[in-house]
Amino acid sequence: MSPNITTLVLNCGSSSIKFTLYEGANGRLHGQVSGLGTSPRIELKDARSGKKLDDALSAADGQDHRHALQAVLAAISATCGDLKVDAVGHRVVHGGHPFVAPVAVDDSVILDLEALIPLAPLHQPHNVAGILAARQAFPDAFQAACFDTAFHRDHPWVNDTFALPRELYEEGVRRYGFHGLSYEYIASHLADQHPDLFRGRVVVAHLGNGASMCALQAGRSIDSTMGFTALDGLPMGTRTGQLDPGVVLYLLTTKGMTGAEISDLLYKKSGLLGLSGISSDMRTLSESPSAEARKAIDYFVFRIRREIGAMASVLGGLDAVVFTGGIGEHSALVRSEVCANQDWLGMEIDTALNASAEAVISKHTSRVKILVVPTNEEEMIRRHTLSLLQA
Ligand SMILES: Nc1ncnc2c1ncn2[C@@H]1O[C@H](COP(=O)(O)OP(=O)(O)O)[C@@H](O)[C@H]1O
Ligand SMILES: CC(=O)OP(=O)(O)O
Ligand SMILES: [Mg+2]
């Protein structure tokens, strides 16, 4: 317990920057710049009163991660200039081979994180920029890096490897898995609120601009749809998800594309955006009358359904499915289509509970509980940062 510690948490995602300033365990200021790269939306609120302070940020701040980060730091000091920030906790998407747990940031850690930028080009540059900016803004504060990959590092070997020559595994070409801070938070929520489910077999679908799924057995990750990079698994806002590596060879050899062009295609032009030709944003696609938007949603839903079946098999059964992330928490449409006709698996969704996004959206007869749990990566980062600081 450290009631007097003031902690700033920065979570730089692919389409958003979310942050919370905590006094002890209580949020004081909470905000996010979302829709970066599409239609930026800015929210800032006093976490105690719920009062909106959106005027502190302007539309120009939402044009890219760099502007948004500067504006976020300026808004924090303008609004809470009276507070001394003791610690800053950062979400860092890729911890690679070296980082199996959160760490205190020093110069050598920053170099290691920069070396991982090619493995997470949509995130890691912003994560490192966040660390550098926070070091400058709060030179006396303790800084911690908390990894998306760490929660998955105990995967059984079969879920940690690719069928490549063994030397590549040894040098770190592994299935790391991502969104680990979100899954760890969901596991802690289950332990608090649904201890019977926590002890069981749970599939968590973190569906945001980045999307992945995780198989939890007794609260531990045993499988993830994401792999070496955050490209694998489900299709995402602009990322392909699972792809036959032969396609990459075709692009390289037959079409003569460069590595940079292929990277741009797979990370920035594919997924919901590539399939629909309209937008990477699920809200926009859901409201669109276009047949292509509908097809992009169909593919997204299809891949999630496929992974639920695969993960239920890996887990040897299923006790609960949890929806989280921007789409998982807010899209009744996606949840209802993912859960439709899954009675054979024991999943029965309740239409009315789903429409109002209750915490439990399954029918009372459903053998598998279906839950909606708002994720809180910031709270998980706060807890890790505090533990490191106290250690
Ligand atoms: N009410 C809603 N209905 C459908 N989709 C929504 C809704 N609110 C947010 N989303 C979707 O959530 C996604 C962003 O998720 P989020 O988890 O905030 O992103 P990030 O991965 O950048 O953290 C976007 O596709 C957005 O359209
Ligand atoms: C790992 C990942 O895809 O993160 P995000 O959801 O923030 O894009
Ligand atoms: Mg996210």
UniProtKB/TrEMBL annotation:
GO terms for molecular function: acetate kinase activity. Its EC number is 2.7.2.1. Pathway: Metabolic intermediate biosynthesis; acetyl-CoA biosynthesis; acetyl-CoA from acetate: step 1/2. Substrate binds at R91. Its cofactor is Mg(2+); Mn(2+). Pfam families: Acetate_kinase. InterPro entries: Ac/propionate_kinase, Aliphatic_acid_kin_short-chain, Aliphatic_acid_kinase_CS, ATPase_NBD. This is Acetate kinase. It comes from Roseibium litorale.
